[in-house]
Design brief:
Layout lengths: L21 H10 L17 H12 L28 H8 L1 E5 L6 H10 L3 E7 L17 E10 L4 E6 L2 E6 L1 H7 L19 E6 L6 H16 L7 H19 L1 H31 L6 H26 L7 H22 L1
Antiparallel strand pairs: 1-6, 2-3, 2-6, 3-4, 4-5
Protein name: DUF1839 family protein
InterPro entries: DUF1839
Organism: Caballeronia catudaia
Length: 348
């Protein structure tokens, strides 16, 4: 595969622009079906947006995203939250031959993104969810929020683009196109390079052929060992448990709105991470690796018990009660010791 983009739109190099029209873009969006990780029964419906993006981006280009989830074993407690999940770019290059580079936006985001998509590269850009139609139930035309999309195809003449975001592939056009790419910004008579605040932009390019089959699984296993050597020195659940009473006092003082933010940024980060780890370990078993069933089941138990804990805490705070969730901590803390250290003993 000579180019990253494999949607069926011809691209023979930087010198030739893609032929982009409404029907191929619509066909691409309709043809893209969410990866199995985003379908069916899920414990945590809201996962990590950056990881969800990469899952669909890889899946949309015919690659197996589960091989990249070994990093989940490194999650730590950072005093006020759990480590936010992010696929290491080094892993992506080793597994899929894809390299992520920063893109310098020196005059026009639209122009720079157009150059890269014409090369067959995907452009990762932080945008305002206010202009994303796939966020209709949350932010679209309601509130401003930062999120990252993977721009796949741009049609400047029709003011239309196709993009990966969260759990799917989507289209936007018209005023939303202008809101995302601000194509007229550099034509503003008051525009100066010093006054422009461009978003952080990266692009994904193919540097070698992707792995598949047994070689993909073997490299993923090597990455798992490497990440297990980087795992937290102490049980992160124990450290969270020690800090939790103070966190509960803050939630009682600040009310339900803060409690929701806390749960979204602490419990969701832990639960969604271990749900991904459970999927990864199940995939490794399917590839023939001797991963004990109880290790896979334990990771899923952490994910589900964290959801129970979130619901229990929300009910208590709404009634003004100080709930320390001791029963849930007993389960999660003990299960962590039955998942991560034994996994390190097996793999490394």
């Amino acid at each position: 595969m000579s180019a990253f983009h494999t949607s069926g739109v011809t691209n023979s190099g930087a010198s030739r622009s893609r032929v982009v029209s409404l029907d191929p873009l619509r066909m691409r969006a309709r043809r893209h079906h969410a990866h199995a990780l985003h379908r069916g029964e899920r414990i945590w419906r809201e996962g990590f947006a950056p990881i969800d993006l990469w899952i669909e981006l890889l899946h949309g280009n015919g690659l197996e995203p589960r091989a990249a989830l070994a990093f989940t074993v490194t999650q730590d407690f950072e005093a006020d939250q759990f480590t936010l999940g992010k696929l290491p770019y080094e892993d992506i290059e080793k597994l899929y031959g894809l390299q992520v580079q920063e893109l310098s936006v020196f005059d026009s985001l639209e122009e720079r993104a157009l150059v890269q998509t014409r090369r067959g590269n995907t452009v990762l850009v932080e945008v305002d969810a206010f202009f994303l139609p796939d966020m209709r139930a949350v932010s679209y035309r309601r509130e401003h929020a930062k999120t990252t999309i993977g721009i796949d195809v741009i049609d400047p003449g029709a003011r239309r683009l196709g993009y990966f975001h969260h759990t799917g592939y989507h289209l936007l056009d018209g005023d939303d196109y202008d809101g995302i790419l601000r194509p007229d910004a550099t034509h503003d008579p008051h525009w100066t390079r010093e006054s422009a605040l461009f978003p952080h932009v990266e692009f994904v390019k193919r540097v070698k052929d992707p792995l598949s089959g047994t070689p993909l699984a073997e490299v993923s296993a090597d990455l798992l060992c490497m990440h297990l050597l980087r795992r937290p020195m102490h049980n992160p659940i124990s450290r969270w448990r020690a800090a939790f009473p103070e966190h509960v006092d803050a939630m009682i003082a600040r009310g339900e709105a803060y409690t929701h933010l806390y749960a979204f940024n602490v419990m969701r980060q832990l639960g969604a991470n271990f749900e991904l780890l459970a999927h990864y370990l199940h995939w490794m078993r399917e590839q023939g690796f001797d991963i004990p069933v109880q290790t896979h089941a334990g990771a899923r138990k952490i994910a589900s018990e964290t959801m129970v804990m979130q619901c229990r805490l929300a009910r208590a705070i709404s009634r003004g009660r100080r709930e320390l969730c001791e029963a849930s901590f007993d389960v999660i803390e003990d299960t962590y010791e039955r998942v991560i250290p034994p996994l390190a003993d097996i793999v490394c």
